[in-house]
Amino acid sequence: MKTRHMFAICIFSMPCVAMAQTTVVTMPVTTTLPLVTVSGTQSGPHLWKVTKQDHVMWILGTLSPLPAAVTWQSEEVVTALHASQEVLKPPSSELALGRFKRLMMISKALGSAKNPDGMTLADLVSKETYDRWVELNAKYSRDSTKLGRYRPFFVAHILYQDALKHSGLNNKDQVGASVLKMAHDARLKVTDPIYEYAVDDPDGYVKETMAQQGAGIRCLGEVIDVVENDMDVLTVRADAWAVGDLDYLEEHPVPHSMEVCRSEFQDPSILAKYGVNDLQARTRKAWMDAAEAALTKNTTTFAFMPLEQLRGRNGYLDMLLDKGYEVVRPKNTPTH
User: Fold this and answer.
1) Residues with Cβ < 8 Å from 221, sequence gap 6 or more?
2) pTM
3) Could you tell me the CA-to-CA distances from 321 to 50, 158, 182, 307, 329 in Å, in that order?
4) Which of 233-243 are b and which e, b meaning 16 or more Cβ less than 10 Å from the residue's Cβ?
5) Which pLDDT score, from 0 to 100, does residue 38 have?
6) Within 13 Å of residue 37, how many CA atoms lie on the same side as its CB?
7) What is the pLDDT of residues 19-54, one digit of tens each?
8) What is the structure's pLDDT at 185?
9) What is the pLDDT of residue 270?
10) Distances, alpha carbon 202 to alpha carbons 12, 94, 97, 187, 205, in Å
């Protein structure tokens, strides 16, 4: 099962793209949003420009989910790529394992997708949460009894995918895949600034990570909140990205962050127990080191990453500014 495979992959890499990339806010958005359906070929937002002397990096801020009916095609991106000597992938981190060891770990994770000891979701979550989940499953014609045998994170992932499909959205990385294909066709150097972390006892780490349920329960709660309250917001934000309306995206963040869903399998307390500290800081440093090296070496570099990482709290653009680079915001395409 493809979804089950994604469940295992999330253990070993971060961020897990199974969930939406959203922005944390302290107050809910109360503005009434115009619900518009965008389809066809769209160019997305314009590019951020980072410069130092005569060297430039063009950065595309991506978003997930996007409208399922949209095909992304940007002449600006094509032009920037053709002028570039290197493409920089988004920041990420993963557990350092050999190929064989990784396959063995994934196999174990797949075998752990169901709750241990015959427990069901009803045994793990509050009655209120369970009833809300059952009601949503009925909306999407899902068998709650069967799904309830699986771990909360897996259940949350299924619910989120159902909600996206029902709203005409998907979180496939169409944009990133297109950028990498263009880079490959142009024979450009592609740099993956991934931070690989090693743990003292990989088997023990995966076993303990799989045994925890608290983060998965919190993740399911967050997903239920999003599905019940935020799908219209996600739809309009997806449309805004497709047509390049950055102003709208910044003015209408998503109330629920789902950060727990993206970080469940990299619990800082468990990582510290197995010898890994400051993973987020190390991941950020790995990307910054790669970006600075590219900006020093290349006349032109192209990079892409989620908008929330670019512009969020302590975002990469602020880090580049602190390093003395000039950052120019792209022009906006107002639509709302």
Assistant:
1) 125, 129
2) 0.86
3) 9, 39, 29, 16, 12
4) bbbbbbbbbbb
5) 80
6) 6
7) 444 433 333 333 444 555 687 888 999 999 999 999
8) 95
9) 85
10) 11, 12, 8, 36, 5
Domains of the chain, residue spans:
2-21+50-328
Q: For residue 75, what are the CA distances in angstroms to 18, 82, 182, 243, 266?
A: 28, 11, 12, 13, 38
Report the distance separating Cα 106 and Cα 102, nearest Å. 6
Tell me how far CA of residue 27 lies from CA of 16, 183, 191, in angstroms.
25, 40, 38
Task: Grade residue 177 by pLDDT with cuts at 50, 70 and 90.
Answer: very high
Amino acid in the structure at residue 328: V
Q: What is the pLDDT of residue 207?
A: 77
Contact 66, 242 (CB under 8 A): yes
Residue 315 has pLDDT above 70, yes or no: yes
pLDDT for 33 = 46
* Dihedral sign from CA coordinates of 234, 238, 239, 243: positive
Beta strands, E only, the chain: 13-14, 40-42, 48-52, 55-62, 66-67, 70-72, 86-88, 93-95, 169-170, 189-191, 195-197, 300-306, 326-328
| pLDDT of 320 | 97
CA distances from 52 to 3, 181, 241, 315 (A): 43, 28, 28, 19
**Residue of 67, 264, 48 lying closest to 175 (CA atoms):** 67
Using a 10 angstrom Cβ sphere, with 0-12 exposed, 13-18 middle and 19 or more buried, the burial of residue 31 is exposed
What residues form DSSP beta bridges with 70?
Answer: 40
H helix or E strand, kind and range, residue 126: none
pLDDT at position 256, please?
74
Residues β-bridged to residue 62: 306
Is residue 123's pLDDT more than 70? yes
Half-sphere exposure of 32 (CA within 13 A, CB side): 0
